[in-house]
Amino acid sequence: MKKNKSERPSFSERYERLRLRQKLFHADLKKSAERRHELLLQNTAKTRAEAKKLAKKIAFGIKYTYALGGRLRNEIVGMLTVYNFGAAVFLHKKRRIRFDENDERLYLNIYRPLRAKKQGRQKVFVYIHGGGWMGGWPESREAFTTRIAAAGYFVASIYYGEAPRYAHPKMIENIYRAFGWLKEHADELNIDMSAVFVGGESAGAHLAAMAGCISSDPEYAAKFDLDERAKDQKIAGLVLNCGVYDLEAVIASGFKRGGIYTQAYCGGTPVSELSEEKKREVSPIYWLNANFPPTFAISAENDKLALLTFDLVDKLRKLGVPVTHFHGEGRFAVHAFAITMALKESRRAMRSIRAFLASL
Questions:
Q1: Is there a contact between 145 and 136 (Cβ–Cβ < 8 Å)?
Q2: What range does the record give for the signal peptide (predicted)?
């Protein structure tokens, strides 16, 4: 039987449950780490350090190849089945538009309502796909992006490159090149680039949150080589679906292949081996501020990364940033569930997203 809203756990109750789940996971992890340390102490050979370094490199290659295969399989199966189920029709679509003349691999797809050009400058919604930073395509997110377009927005869905080829900070810099291309062609496209909406799921939400931090914190923006045309791009609002906001917390969560995903994003270096400064740089949770854009944040009941969204929402509320939190419930409320319109809970999320965008 469906629960009444009054019977559903409060934000603080859900937050505490997620903390407890992670605490139990940590206890098991600590036991395993202590046992491994004891075994390593038994080997005192001088070549151990070099051997470990080589072993890490080999292990990363093997794990990366395995994880990439899984990501590609998921993307292909998803695109052929649920990912694009329920996509909106009667739209103008144009795919694989190159936005960087120096890199033919990078492109964006655009979606807009019919006759949109005749109705004045359109508001822009930029979408950043997920896929563990090492996979994902704009074409496999069209159930989501076309529904946004059908609500009256010009949608640009960006392919920004994959890890480790485009390791940090290349992805976010590529996204700003796409912003620059859109600004340069704003008159031709009849779009309003004065302030854009930005959304994404999972790794894409991580990059969208980074853009939010760049747009609201000059100190953070100065860390990146941003396109001159777009370095001051304003962001009107963010839609963050089951995002990653703290890379160390991904590993602590027990999320499947979280270690290899984050390692790939960092160019092959495990997050634990980054400098403290770099750990902060790759994690937008440290750069949230009172000027951060209004945010619609989605979490899911059956997602090991849900705590990261609760942490984000909690911090934004304390900063006074307008934030709407949508917590997906039920059996199918899994990681990044809201990208597919095949689910009732996803369609409920979409209605709330449209209302959020319309309110800004």
A1: no
A2: none
* pLDDT recorded at residue 326: 98
Whole-number pLDDT of residue 47: 47
Q: Please check whether residue 213 is in contact with residue 284, taking contact to mean a CB–CB distance below 8 angstroms.
A: yes
Are the C-beta atoms of 71 and 257 separated by less than 8 Å? no
The DSSP bridge partners found for residue 324 are: 296
In CATH, the architecture of 66-359 is 3-Layer(aba) Sandwich (3.40)
Contact 259, 29 (CB under 8 A): no
**CB within 8 A of 199, min separation 6: which ones?**
125, 126, 127, 128, 148, 205, 208, 238, 239, 240, 241, 353
Render pLDDT for 121-161 as a digit per residue (tens, 0 to 9): 999 999 999 999 988 889 999 999 999 999 999 999 999 99
The whole-number pLDDT of residue 131 equals 92
What residues in the chain have per-residue pLDDT under 70? 1-9, 18, 21-22, 24-82, 116-118
CB contact at 8 A, 77 and 285: no
| pTM for this prediction | 0.86
Name, in order, each residue with C-beta under 8 angstroms of 180's C-beta and a sequence gap of 6 or more: 99, 227, 228, 229, 230
3 state SS of 305? coil
CB proximity list for 138: less than 8 A, separation 6 or greater: 95, 107, 108, 109, 127, 129, 145, 157, 158, 159
User: Which residues 6+ apart lie within 8 Å of 152 measured at CB?
Assistant: 113, 116, 122, 123
| pLDDT confidence of residue 1 | 42
Q: Where are the alpha helices (DSSP H) in the chain?
A: 11-41, 48-80, 142-150, 170-184, 186-189, 203-216, 218-221, 247-253, 258-265, 276-281, 306-319, 344-359
Calculate the CA dihedral of residues 37, 38, 39, 40 and round it to 10 degrees.
50
